[in-house]
Amino acid sequence: MKPNYLVTCCLVLATTVLWAEEPKSEGLKKVFATDPSGKAVAIHIARASAKPGQTITLKGRVMGNIKPFVEGRSIFILGDTETLKACSDNPGDACETPWDNCCDSPEAIKQGTATIQIVDAKGKVLKEGIENVNGLQKLSYVTVSGTVAPGSSPQLLLLNADAIKVEELKKK
Amino acid sequence: MLPFTYAVRNLFRSPSRLVQTVGGSALVVILVMAAVAINDGMKRVLAASGSASNVILVGAGSEESIQRSEVPESSAGIAEAAVSGITEKLGVRAVSSEIHYMNYLIFEDGHKAQALLRGVTPQALRVHPEVRLVAGGFPSSGEVMVGRLAWRKLGVGKTTLVPGTSVTLDGMKLRVSGVFAAPGTVLESEVWATLGDLRVLSKRETLSCVALKLENAEDFPDVEIFTKQRLDLELSALRESDYYAHLNTFFRPLRAMTLLTAGLIAIGAIFGGINTLYAAFASRVREMATLQAIGYSRFALLVSLVQESTLACLTGTLVASLTAIFLLDGQTIPFSIGAFTLEISPKVAVTGMITGLLLGIIGTLPPAIRCLKPALPVALRSSSI
């Protein structure tokens, strides 16, 4: 195990244990209580064929943006682990914000990211912060299933999540 | 205790030394007051320049500099339609497409200076309601509107930038259509042109930013949601107040240097004062001993010497304060992104008074103690007169 990977593992595990919060609203509780169904696919593959209204399951990592979460809202950015690499995964990289993928090209980031949101019955994003809920944080590995939101296209993948599972750190 | 008049009369025993002390302390105090006024002025203008209810949409990754940011032209229309909570008046939403561009302007007298230009549409006035035309009109194509402090930032005479004059930008002659005020903000140092003109002159196909005014500053997360839901536009949302707060942080070392320089000069002045007073008090050892012999305590003499010196320093402080009020107050100081006006506020005045007081007390104590230290028989036989 490489030292920087070990440090990331320790940090992520420590923050998962220390700052994990419970979801407050029923909507968010339900999403975290449900296990994602179906075969999880990578974002760059899913975006090519996803159509609004379709149910899909994605796997990835919370990254692809300097601020992958929005304070007080249930929305986050999921990055494709097959096409994007967190800066901290590069040996010797001391990037302070490894989740922004500054080491990847803007085009790769554009193609390798999807927006995951939890919406209410009216289709509005829940007014409840999702960062640290059930251990979901920057660079967390996540599997999520839901419905492709209206307005999605091969250039833009937006998913209304029904189920989110925060995975433990993968072993290399 | 010795009467206060003794200290006052002693001041005039050596007029040249009095002038030296008053002049020296006045210089130090005015320097400290200027440093504090500059520090406060820069902080104030940057804090006032950003509104918490204004949001700037910049290109992702360009959060540090609007000039470097690239935002697709279509973003303004999409944001206007998609973001809820934008201020709306008479059916028009406060969304401003802007190009921020830095380049040299050539004036009619041939003078050349780097200006911060902002390409705007009339919509900008909805997002920046603090902007008020004070002369002339809003620019049309081939025209610019200048902030009322732009002349200071650009290092030209005030009459060089009045409606009817012209400036040249990248070979294009632009007529000054008007002058605007935006009290207390860096906008007053900017030059505004039409978005179309600046797009051509800056050879840009994209905007620098889209500025929105929200009804409620707490709706900012909704704008952030918009940027996350439209990752294809590659936008990042910033509170205008946060952007200028960041600039404020950027200029912190500069402000610290100003204060440090003033502080070092003040310390130098204290040492200079100590040196002068050592010489001055050395000649008064026998006088002090005589006063001790007729019954005054060492402490009373120390207080009198401190009174004497502090009085001179406070006279210098008074001179410095009057100079600051008449010469510094209201002066415009240019800096890289704009200009600010110096204000001799109560805080600046009090800092000046404290500096003068400290100069008088700290500068006097070591020489006074040395003057009063010798034993009375030794001091009475002192050869100095």
**Top CATH class of chain A:** Mainly Beta
- Strand tally of chain B, please? 14
- Tally of extended strands of chain A? 5
Q: What oligomeric state best describes the polypeptide chains here?
A: heterodimer
Instruction: Please identify which CATH superfamily of chain A we are dealing with.
Output: Bacterial OB-fold
Largest sheet of chain B: 6 strands, mixed, barrel
Any idea what the shape of chain B is? elongated
List the strand order in the largest sheet of chain A.
Answer: 1-2-3-5-4
H/E element order of chain A: HHHEEHEEE
Q: What is the domain tally of chain A?
A: 1
* Overall average pLDDT of chain A: 85
Give, in order, the helices and strands of chain B. Answer: HHEHEEEEHEEHEEEHEHEHHHHEEHH
Hey, roughly how much beta strand do the residues of chain A contain?
A: 15-25%
Class from secondary-structure proportions of chain A: alpha+beta
Q: In terms of per-residue confidence, which ranges of chain A show pLDDT below 50 for 5 or more consecutive residues?
A: none
- C-alpha geometry of chain A: globular
Largest sheet of chain A: 5 strands, mixed, barrel
Gap between N and C termini of chain A, in Å?
Answer: 7 Å
Could you explain the architecture of this structure?
The complex is a heterodimer of chains A (172) and B (385). Chain A has four helices and five strands. Helix content of chain A is 22%, strand content 21%. Chain A has helices at 3-19, 26-33, 43-49, 106-111; strands at residues 55-62, 75-79, 113-117, 141-148, 158-167. Chain A is globular. Chain A is an alpha+beta fold and 172 residues long. Chain A has a five-stranded mixed beta barrel. In chain B, 50% of the residues lie in helices and 20% in strands. The longest helix of chain B has 35 residues, at 15-49. With 385 residues, chain B is α+β, with helices and mostly antiparallel strands. In chain B, helix 2 (15-49) packs across helix 11 and helix 11 (298-328) packs antiparallel against helix 12 (346-372). Chain B contains 13 helices and 14 strands. Chain B folds into two domains: 4-48 and 251-380, no CATH class; 54-215, no CATH class. Chain B has helices at residues 4-11, 15-49, 74-82, 124-127, 150-153, 195-201, 220-229, 240-250, 252-282, 285-293, 298-328, 346-372, 376-380, and strands at residues 54-59, 88-89, 92-93, 95-107, 112-120, 132-136, 143-147, 166-169, 172-181, 191-194, 209-213, 235-239, 332-335, 338-341. The model of chain B has no long low-confidence stretch (mean pLDDT 90). The chains are: A alpha+beta (172), B alpha+beta (385).
